[in-house]
């Protein structure tokens, strides 16, 4: 999902991806310029210490704390070089930094021209996914993602709300009827599901099917969110076209679901 959203946000075919890179570069450039200027203003009038270069670098890193990760230790080379050349004019140091920054920005803009997502050594969607901590295991029946916030957590996977199995294209066995029931109601029913070589297992004993079923804790609950009732009813045509199946027979959508409005569905989610 994240990869799809990244690609839709940055379609390089339209030049939008390149514009995104240029926009981010310009924003970073302005913030670094500001850090150079502020550091110079703060340090140049300091009379209590003579190591102005060191003070300037300290302040420069501090100004950029919330912008980029720039360890002070990475600038020791600059500090030693300036001390060796006996640079004490902070205004001169500021000017040199600005010129170097301009050159770097121009070089990066040339590098970014014609770039696409394959230009990254690590893909943006991979980096983004790493920022979302938690378990990503999906319910084998309906595809709902485990709500545990710890990756590789102890105990079984679980979710607060399951969703109609039709969302994943699941059918009633032996038919082309999309299943509108949710897992938590099925585990309280007398229905069965089929795995492998036509092996039928009661939903009540779903863990007997082994992994991944046995790694989930699905509590019996006949209630279903109004959102999913509205979703299935509203997107019925699209779901039928996507899976080339029908909401009929045991998968017939109740008339009451059709009367649920979008606002009612969203209001329930906000509660």
TrEMBL record:
This is GVIN1 GTPase. It comes from Hippolais icterina. PANTHER family: GTP-BINDING, INTERFERON-INDUCED VERY LARGE GTPASE 1. InterPro entries: VLIG_GTPase.
